[in-house]
Amino acid sequence: MNDLLLRTLRGQDTERRPLWIMRQAGRYLPEYRALRERFSFEELCARPDLATEVTLMPLERFPLDAAIVFADIMSPIGALGIDVEFAPGPVINKPLRSAAAIQALPVPDQEEIAPTVLETIRSVKNELADRVPVLGFSGGPWTLAAYLVQGRGGRDFPALRALAADEPGVLADLLERLTDLSVSYLRGQVEAGVDAVQIFETWSGVLSFADWSALVKPHLQNLLEQIGELGVPSILFMQNAPHLLGGMISLPADGFSVDWRVDLSGLRQALGPQKVLQGNLDPAVLLAGPERTSRAARRLLQGVPREGHIVNLGHGILPQTPIESVEALIEAVHDEAQEDRRAVASAGTGG
Ligand code: CP3
Question: Could you give the domains of the chain?
């Protein structure tokens, strides 16, 4: 298997930086858009044969170093008896706003949680035959709560923050339930064959450092400790949260994925070589075309030492991204390894 990603997450040196792209299976791919003409997003997720096809689409086109299973962070939420629609982001028609609604949530058994996603994982593992590792994922508890309480995505989730201020105990109950749900779901994913997992805590940045540390961080700590017991490495992604970095990197994840607002080079210098960092090109740079992408990627590679770096974007790839920009990013990463090999070879021959 191409195990660049897994070796990096284990703290081992690799001959090349691993590279995968958040939201790599999606709307920037013409073949995905063609499939979406015939099927809704929900249908694609519900059909393991189609979800497998979409998972593999980016791997057919590009030499990426991991597959990420095609599903959504809201995929396990159906097991709580909550209906989720996509328009295009998740929408909950009856948001959870009271202690009673939260206490009434069922606690599903592992096999009730997103069984079609687990079937997709088994089929992807089978199709890939160990070509590259398969990443599983879950939403972080705060990010799942954001959709459940607010009812839909938005800029800063006022209903969720109001709940945090008004009834922190009720919020804690919800975050505990969502953490348990994620652990069961991820255990199912590991049993189905995923090689590593990423936690998408996309909306953590809407809280202050003090509130996040008190209200959310203990649940992430608990979640990551339990993932550690599942025996696969974990990556924690937080978006728009440079003010939470100090707390984030003290959590027990194997890798830390940060967005483009963070100076990755400075962060590496501050942390030393131990922590694995993932990121963090601005997805919007890819919209500016392959030359700009290539330049930005080379600058990133020059600024951040190879050891312990997983190349990725700072957030999901945007639907309008030209394919050529993705190719330019991959080429920059592959070129660096080739240049390293040439330098070693010429040093060896005295030339
Ligand atoms: O990374 C991958 O390619 C795997 C699949 C994946 C999807 N969603 C498929 C999807 C993953 C890892 C996610 C995670 C996800 N979903 C997050 C966390 C990552 C992030 O971007 O911050 C969040 C916040 C969501 C919620 C969500 N789902 C939104 C906001 C949207 C709408 C717009 C968008 O970003 O695409 C969705 C729908 C969704 N999830 C689509 C896909 C491919 C688009 C569906 C379509 O219209 O075809």
Answer: 4-348 (3.20.20.210)
